[in-house]
Amino acid sequence: xxxxxxxxxxxxxxxxxxxxxxxxxxxxxxxxxxxxxxxxxxxxxxxxxxxxxxxxxxxxxxxxxxxxxxxxxxxxxxxxxxxxxxxxxxxxxxxxxxxxxxxxxxxxxxxxxxxxxxxxxxxxxxxxxxxxxxxxxxxxxxxxxxxxxxxxxxxxxxxxxxxxxxxxxxxxxxxxxxxxxxxxxxxxxxxxxxxxxxxxxxxxxxxxxxxxxxxxxxxxxxxxxxxxxxxxxxxxxxxxxxxxxxxxxxxxxxxxxxxxxxxxxxxxxxxxxxxxxxxxxxxxxxxxxxxxxxxxxxxxxxxxxxxxxxxxxxxxxxxxxxxxxxxxxxxxxxxxxxxxxxxxxxxxxxxxxxxxxxxxxxxxxxxxxxxxxxxxxxxxxxxxxxxxxxxxxxxxxxxxxxxxxxxxxxxxxxxxxxxxxxxxxxxxxxxxxxxxxxxxxxxxxxxxxxxxxxxxxxxxxxxxxxxxxxxxxxxxxxxxxxxxxxxxxxxxxxxxxxxxxxxxxxxxxxxxxxxxxxxxxxxxxxxxxxxxxxxxxxxxxxxxxxxxxxxxxxxxxxxxxxxxxxxxxxxxxxxxxxxxxxxxxxxxxxxxxxxxxxxxxxxxxxxxxxxxxxxxxxxxxxxxxxxxxxxxxxxxxxxxxxxxxxxxxxxxxxxxxxxxxxxx
Length: 664
Known about the structure:
The chain is α+β, with helices and mostly antiparallel strands. The protein has helices at residues 15-18, 28-31, 35-47, 77-82, 109-125, 134-159, 182-199, 204-208, 226-240, 243-250, 273-291, 378-383, 419-424, 500-514, 533-544, 562-576, 583-589, 649-652, and strands spanning 67-69, 304-306, 311-312, 325-326, 339-341, 374-376, 393-396, 399-402, 425-426, 469-470, 492-493, 498-499, 600-608, 625-635. The protein has a domain at 12-58 and 71-269 and 646-652: Serine Threonine Protein Phosphatase 5, Tetratricopeptide repeat (Alpha Horseshoe). The strands form seven sheets. Strands 1-6 form a two-stranded antiparallel ribbon. It is globular.
């Protein structure tokens, strides 16, 4: 277990808003007197990292163009973002940005950030009270510096630059600090991430080798470490160097910046090169540590005896699906060996209340519980390219145009696709329920998916409005026949905040910015002797390349200009990180959030040509269809103010120097 000491510590000065039981309050001289107590004080921070998937009975964390709820779930935050109703984030208690008081406030990024930042500052100011070794002092300080930066950074991604709080103010004292711009705030985060890097052990194994860490040897996987700090330092620099942040730095006034007009004016490739140079150097250093075996992190294997059913190959040591969920592994926390940043262990059976039941069809009660479904858009489906390494569509002059080199056939739309498509996506003809013994007579008609236009699983109230379901985060066997969400399957799910594949993608993006020319994209810089920008993308494709489902490298026609290669990196992010909650932040920082075609969500419409029985003896990816086309589903009403979420009104009235985001 993660906890060394169950110590929900808060001192008298902050009990007013927390409304803690007086018996739970621990005196300062007890909390900070030795390493064990001090570490117990910090463990609460790990426990307050929001579990995005399980905020309430049916949360939403995908705000981009990649996901949609059916009409039953339109009250949730992802649809409110489509409507431009960003203020709903602090009123909608099913959104992880705010959450509610359920589960002891664990699920609110806004509330928990300020609370945990204050805990870090209190701890840093009281480190002198510690009676312990230099090693213990370094471990404690390293964690506090990391988390002070991490909570600030997570807030910045949604709300822009904020005051950087580096002092523990009293509860009745208003810290009248000015709002910083994103880049100014990122510089402060970077200082703390660097401090954490210098103080923490290299990785979980390094924690086990410290005298203090030996007390929890083998159970330090969730602790932040040197590698975690290095990867977030690189991410901090890349975000600061992204087109949105560079553009807003030009227009800042008192730290708060605004875009002039709704359009990005074609500045999506205009990065801040200085920040991206720092990002490339930092992330390159991290990947060298991985490829030279300095750290225990590595890419999980993509080896399956049955890819559709996520059946792990008997010769595989690790499994890609285990990044997101585990089954029959004694409720093991998902993520290893790839997850770099996770919250605390969510507890047994935590996914089965509703997280395991929001991704599949509800027709005839095939999947239990209410009728709310979180499913992928056709936009996301089109991001999954072909096995030959070609995208189906190219981005040219702000529009998607069909790529003639892809070989994609609209009469066989699911044939020869990127292997990750078959892992992540449930499409027409998919064998959804493997064991039908427990199904009712009505349910037995739906063991194979009917997702063509007019199909029984296309109902807007109990099916898919887009023609697809997703099983990346939860297996399709979570249904009334296979019962993976029953207790005896020990299903555990968790969505990591950062994993190693993301580091490869961020490095490729930063390196593509700083590369002198197209040829330099294939060269390994001195700060990353093991990978070029192109090799970083190809490493992810090599991972999924198998005999049954081949995957080729980035093709030459996609590297004829730096901008075209950047388009391919961005598409690779959409595929590899699909449904993991990064898409909105990516479109935002690339200045594409308000730009067509990213402002329209659409479905795929087509006619089946095969009989129902055909799918029972053939691979559904080989099916022939007719009249395959896109249909407009939702137009997102977004303008320049929607690049940032608004701050809660009650907070902007605290003092004059804490202004609302522009447009709100």
